[in-house]
Every structure is written in C-alpha cells, then in structure tokens.
Design a protein that fits this description.
It is a single chain. By secondary structure, the chain is an alpha/beta fold. Helix 8 packs parallel to helix 9 and helix 16 packs antiparallel against helix 17. The protein is globular. 47% of the residues are buried. Bound molecules: adenine (ADE) and zinc ion.
Length: 343
C-alpha cells in the first residue's frame, strides 16, 4: 500500500537544496492572481469565478492544456504583472527548499497581444534580482520559442529580445510537440549558439524518441525537457545515460496531461535505474496540482523511492543547472551535509 511520506521524510525532502529547471513562469499563474490581474487590466475572462476556472483544469492531452494556459496568460499586460507573477513563484520556491531556479518564459504569447518585449523581460529580470536579495534564490531566465509557430517568427523573436540579451541565459522550445519536430528550429538554435546562449528543448513528452535525438543532434540541446518517452528506445536510453544528458521530468504534469495514467505507473524508477540524470520539476504548477515539493512528496508516496534516491535527484538538479561552477560546488557541498545528517 502506498503511504504518504512521514513528517520526517517530508522535512528531509524539503531541506535538500535543489534546483528547479523546468518551470514555465506563465504556468505558475494561480487562478486567484489570474482573476486579480484580469480585473486590474480590464481583461474579459471566459470563466465566471476562480472555482469555475479551476474546474476547467481537466486535461486530456498537452493541447487541451495549452488552450487554457494561453487564454490564462492573456491577463498579463504590464512589467509589474510579470514581476508580481515571478515573485509569487519565488516565495513558494523558497518554502520548498529551492536554491536555484531557471524560469522558462514564452515571449511570443505576450508580444502577439501587443505587450512590449521590454515589459516581459524587464519585469521577470527584476523579480530574479529580488529573488536573490529577498529569498536567497539564484534565478535566471530561459526564453522559449513556441514550436506551433514558424521558425521565421522564432528568429524574429530572438532578434527582438537582443536588447535584453544580458537578462536571459538560454533558449528553449515548448508548446505543441506532435507534428513540430526540433529540426524545424535548426537555424534559430544555431543563432542562439553563436550568441553564447544555453539551449534546451521539450522533447519526448508526447513526441517520439526521434524528437529527443534531433533535439540533441540538430539543436544541440544540453538538457531534454521531459524526455520520458526515451524508454521507447533502449539505444537512446543508453546514449542519454552515457552522455549524462539531464532530463527535466515533471511527474504531476505527466499525469495531468495523460502521459501516464497515474503516478504509480510513471517511469521515474526505470529512468533512475537506467542511470539517467533525472531531475524533478513542476512544469506548470498552478495547473497541474502542485509545486516542486508537492511533486517530490507525490512521487515518494506513489513510487518505490528511497532517501538515497532523493539525494541523487537533488544532486542531479544542481549538477544540471546552468549556474556558475563554483556556485554549484557550494550547493553540492551543502547537499552532502544535509544528506549526511539523514532523515
Ligand atoms: N508550455 C507550458 N507547459 C508545457 C508543456 N508541458 N509542454 C509543452 N509546452 C508547454
Ligand atoms: Zn514544460
């Protein structure tokens, strides 16, 4: 019988210093904040109340979620909106024991509505600076391209963002996966590499192992976001393990979007057993039923995981982050101290 983690184990999981590497900041917009911003900005909503909106969070696949997620993001208008959104996330992240956060943001979702690029990046960048000062969290931004749009639009978005180049450390690829293979974005990722940006990509969430391979080979992705479908190809699993490519796995997201029927069926234990550099993440916590620690607790309840696995998962997250090496080393030393004290 699955058992909820004991209070001692839950406290141990919280104490472990961890990085969150797969978090869409627009996906941290809670219904209450969404309604408050809609009111402040005069944006009409399709749902009459917070409760009615929450009740609509019943997804059948990635696309059914994205439709609601993009509609929700329409309430974000001003630099202050973006700053407040990220500050709400950082408060929760601090409570979960997160020391490092690499936030995805989707500029095209906002610029298409006439929101200036400077308002999006300016507000988020200001929140990242405040996260360090107010919560002791090291935070950076990763600009994501929407893969259902064209590569020409992605190239234009990257160009438009260049005046704020110092405010983001990398690029990513998200939105509807099926039918939009990574190779569609070869040129924009090559341009990002020339600019010295880190590169990550969603692949193998709903899409096949071939998308993970082309994310690595064509885009030069340093991490794979999700990647859970790699287990459909034993050769790919071997390659990912040998290369030490990190996977940013999002268990509650995978269940909400029906990638797995329930958490007990999730392939996290198999991924770990294959020697993969798996990390745990929350993806879109306001929509999927929990923040990072909620993901950890749910996994430890539903799956056969040990405190040693927890230390390994936290270690992976710190190692896979794009923070400076000396900073990562300091967190890893802190992690070993917490691990040594035990549950
Ligand atoms: N955008 C926000 N969440 C996403 C996810 N889980 N997959 C693809 N695109 C996303
Ligand atoms: Zn995602």
């Amino acid at each position: 019988m699955p058992q909820a983690p004991t209070p001692a184990l839950a406290a141990f999981l919280r104490r472990l210093p961890k990085a969150e590497l797969h978090l869409h900041i627009e996906g941290s917009l809670e219904p209450e904040q969404l309604f408050a911003l809609a009111h402040r900005n005069g944006v009409p909503l399709a749902h009459a109340s917070v409760e009615a909106l929450r009740a609509a969070y019943d997804f059948t696949d990635l696309q059914s979620f994205l439709d609601i997620y993009y509609a929700g993001a329409s309430v974000l208008r001003t630099e202050l909106d973006f700053e407040e959104l990220a500050m709400a996330y950082f408060a929760r992240a601090a409570a979960d024991g997160i020391v490092r956060a690499e936030l995805f943001f989707d500029p095209q979702t906002h610029t298409a509505r006439g929101v200036p690029m400077g308002a999006v990046i300016g507000g988020l960048a200001r929140a990242c600076r405040r996260a360090a000062a107010e919560h002791g969290i090291s935070a950076d931004l990763i600009l994501c391209f929407l893969r259902h749009l064209s590569e020409a639009e992605a190239l234009q978005t990257l160009d438009e963002a260049l005046p704020w180049r110092q405010h983001f450390i990398g690029v990513g690829l998200d939105s509807s996966e099926r039918g939009h293979p990574p190779e569609k974005f070869a040129r924009v990722f090559a341009r990002a590499a020339e600019l010295g940006l880190h590169r990550v990509a969603h692949a193998g969430e709903e899409g096949p192992p071939a998308y993970i391979e082309s994310a690595l080979d064509v885009l030069g992705a340093e991490r794979i976001d999700h990647g859970v479908r790699c287990t459909d190809s034993p050769a790919l699993v071997q390659r990912l393990a040998a290369q030490g490519t990190p996977l940013t796995v999002c268990p509650l997201s995978n269940v909400k979007l029906c990638v797995f029927p329930d958490l007990a069926s999730h392939n996290l234990p198999a991924l770990l057993a294959s020697g993969l550099k798996v990390t745990l993440n929350s993806d879109d916590p306001a929509y999927f039923g929990g923040y990072l620690l909620d993901n950890w607790l749910a996994c430890f309840e539903a799956l056969p995981l040990t405190p040693a696995d927890a230390v390994r998962l936290a270690r992976h997250s710190l190692e896979a982050s794009f923070a400076p090496v000396a900073q990562r080393a300091a967190w890893l030393a802190q992690l070993e101290q917490v691990a040594a004290q035990g549950v």
